[in-house]
Write the structure tokens for this entry.
Amino acid sequence: MSESAQQSPLVSLEQAGVFRSGRWLVRGVDLTVAAGEIVTLVGPNGSGKSTTAKMALGILRPDEGQAARRAGLVVSYVPQKVAVDWTLPLTAGRFMRLTGRVSASEAGQAMEATGVAHLKDAELRTLSGGEFQRVLLARAIARRPDLLVLDEPVQGVDFTGEIALYELIGRIRDDLGCGVLLISHDLHVVMAATDRVLCLNGHVCCSGTPTAVAGSEAYRKLFGAQAAPALAVYRHRHDHTHLPDGRVRHADGTVTDHCHPDDGHHHHGHPDHHGGRGESGHRDRPGESGRT
Amino acid sequence: MLDDFFIRALLAGIGVALVAGPLGCFIVWRRMAYFGDTLSHGALLGVALGLLLQVDLTLAVFAVSALVSLALLVLQRRASLSADALLGLLSHSSLALGLVVLAFMTWVRVDLMGLLFGDILAVSRSDLALIWGGGAIVLALLAAVWRPLFAATVNPEIAEAEGMRPDRANIVFMLLMAGVIAIAMKIIGVLLITAMLIIPAAAARRLASGPEQMAVLASAIGVAAVLGGLFGSLQWDTPSGPSIVVAALGLFLVSLMPLRGASGRPVREGKSNG
């Protein structure tokens, strides 16, 4: 994986932000996904995870910063919510071919892989939440994408199913060599195969690699032995706290109205840069924030 | 054969029904029934302007309908009013404008009832050529944008993310709608066009197990409604346009009858042959 990650990224965001009805939904996001890499976005509700994914996909155009995708990229997207109207006669089998030609055998294999092959002739609106989620994932795989974007793919799936889905996503990555951008509903427990975690709360609060559940006695007790290979724990390293009123308290004790990087109060995802050098007024970058 | 007005009426009605079926499915899927109404009400303004400027009426209706749909797109982007309020505004103001402009032109005598309810029995050979030629173009274009348009109907975000360019498909769809209304106005009338779009599609819903199948079924049901309506209108001397719509309604009610387990109702447990 690390070799392929050296290539030019499939998709990259650079200081990207989206401004809607008078406020920034998310701002100052740097993100790259390379082939064979799994990047997980975590963060509380309304923290801009989906917005960030939509910028990466080109559904939303960033109002500041840059979003770039490699030319000719085959993308598969599993949105957080797909509502299928009663008026639409749409079977799972037909849904496989929604945005492109997919051979019957490829569609069949993908549905087999996610365990929904028996639902081929079922209408989408009759499926349960977990079944529907698996059909969405099957459709995404059947396209054999370069980049797979999954917005909370394990919602509505029970715990055992969640582990199975994570293992499946890992296998898909290994088989197709695709990049995966995964949005997780859980702040602390992420997919073990994740190469990088970004914690968002209107901006990138911190980022890093998860540590395996297997290595943590407490979590192994909590989740059981079967979960250990599939799940990992992400330890947040925040240098600031988001207060309930929306303001932000920084490690140096100052409180600001928002958390944009330009306010210079914190150090994005660089836990090694401790200390209260927030008052300088310009953005800290790794390497150029002199320790004077 | 084409000398007989009744044969011409049948052919015209069948042509319109064939085109209205698939387009009507999209109207139903996208919950755009009121949009169809708005466009068809705008058609009356098109007639008035066509008479005023002395241009071909079909062309004028198409132009005005297309303008109304573009106006809707622009107004929706601005989004200070909800979509249904915007549609109501466009619909009724264009209808009212059309009526006012017609009233000003005292030198032309317009058969208002013919415009509102259609006059399928007065279809000429050139009308027939327009319906079948224009209809073929509309269906060909619809087939060309089918996949992106359908993907955008199911989920615009998936369509956008996976390179289906839903905006382009939506604009093509709106122009096709304008085209169908221009073609169908003479046959079925401004007030009843939407019925020909929606009722056959709604009747097809329970019988269909896939989108393409539903489109074909909607066309077939539309053709049946035209046949039933026209023969009924001949038999009982009723107005032809409304008779077709009543026949379509009858077919819709039949489609609501319990099915003999054949299709329609989702079969989930039954077909689990993995």
